[in-house]
Amino acid sequence: MLASNAVRLAISKGLHRQPASTWNRPQHETRKRSKLFWILYTLDRQIASRSGRPPAIDDDDISCDAPETLLPADSSSDTFCTICIKLSQIQSRAYKRLSSARALRQSAEELIRAVAELHEEVILFKRTINHIIDLDEQLDEMPMPRMMTMFQLIMVYFLYYSVLFDIHTPLMLPWFHLTGSKRFDTFHPQVQNSCAIIARTARVAILGCRLVQLDANTPVL
């Protein structure tokens, strides 16, 4: 509830819109507004993913510039935020294409294609950050990135796991049946692949929980 209120307040202040050049707003202020909005965006997408609820704002209503590159970064915080934003944008597209009311009306063929395309998007993104972090490495075996703290590394990994769950879980839902489909043989490999990804991701996520230190300062998300 508090996160939703924060997003609504940000929208009411126009943080989701890119300021016009005629406003003559200082560049550092624009950067701060942009960073604040995208942090709220990331939080909103994580809450939406975990609760099964729609995001508080649609991507089509956002014109605020998102970070387009991971380098150069001013600090570990910039690197961490940029990675989280990019993963959250994929997560948002996964919701729209797989879990929204409109997506639930699509055919099995369209669903299979959407899952494959979104997974390919994840793979391409992993390649762009491979010089910083290798998400294919198990969390407890991953060398500590120079530009990230341990807490940030854990957050990135679990956000990545969440994105994979969002993309591949629809093919594992009890009501998703392809047995009677004439194209079952065509769909079956993708369903098997999604099941394998979910099982593998669940396993590494459980093992990764050993590194999570819980105390009074640990955030809920």
From TrEMBL:
Q: Keywords assigned by UniProt?
A: DNA-binding, Membrane, Nucleus, Transcription, Transcription regulation, Transmembrane, Transmembrane helix
A Pfam match is Fungal_trans
InterPro entries (UniProt xref): AtrR-like, XnlR_reg_dom
Tell me the superkingdom of the source: Eukaryota
Q: Which SMART domains match?
A: Fungal_trans (SM00906)
Where it sits in the cell: the answer is: Nucleus
GO CC entries:
nucleus
The Xylanolytic transcriptional activator regulatory domain covers which part of the protein?
1-73
What residue intervals traverse the membrane? 154-176
One GO term under biological process is: DNA-templated transcription
* One annotated GO molecular function: DNA-binding transcription factor activity
Designated name of the protein = Xylanolytic transcriptional activator regulatory domain-containing protein
